Amino acid sequence: MSTPQNLRPDLAAIAAMIRPGARVLxxxxxxxxxxxxxxxxxxxxxxxxxxxxxxxxxxxxxxxxVVQGDADTDLVDYPAQVFDAVILSQTIQATEKPxxxxxxxxxxxxxxxxxxxNFGYWKVRASLLAGGRMPRTRSLDQxxxxxxxxxxxxxxxxxxxxxxxxxxxxxxxxxxxxxxxxHMDPRRLTHGILGPNLFAQGGxxxxxxx
Length: 210
Fold this sequence. Notes:
Blueprint: H1 9-17, E1 23-27, H2 33-42, E2 45-50, H3 53-61, E3 66-68, H4 71-74, E4 83-89, H5 98-108, E5 109-117, H6 122-131, H7 155-164, E6 167-175, E7 181-183, H8 196-199, E8 202-209
Parallel strand pairs: 1-2, 1-4, 2-3, 4-5
Antiparallel strand pairs: 5-8, 6-7, 6-8
């Protein structure tokens, strides 16, 4: 059974946002660690969608209700407001159409939890400035031609996207290098301002449709 101690920091932060007994859809659920944790500790009615067949098999082995699917193409088939919470962790930057995906998440769920890496993190900026090449960091740990990350955005960019999609930010947390999270004020995540957009490795957001 998964515990907060062995969940990734962003997944632990998302788990804290989910209410007991909620109906949850985890999009891009990976090997099912978060979904299993929510089912076993919060009694959620959990469902998952995952593009990797190997990960789907791992989820099924955990006893989870997970199907193979693609966030870019398959979310359109889900009816509106059928889930209390929809989760998208470390995936939005790897989708072909992030705005369309986020709009579907907001339509499907009453709340949407999103975590993402911050490509405005100071180490990413410094590596690019010093080396003149795309950096290899925890957020970008593959060569530029072999990474699944196709839309590199900062936390400020994501806040702009939430506005464009008509979403309200209910909660926002910065992922720190220590592995801990801290609350951040999304109103301050504008371009050119120091703070989480420069010093956070990633962010976790809880959204609702405005």
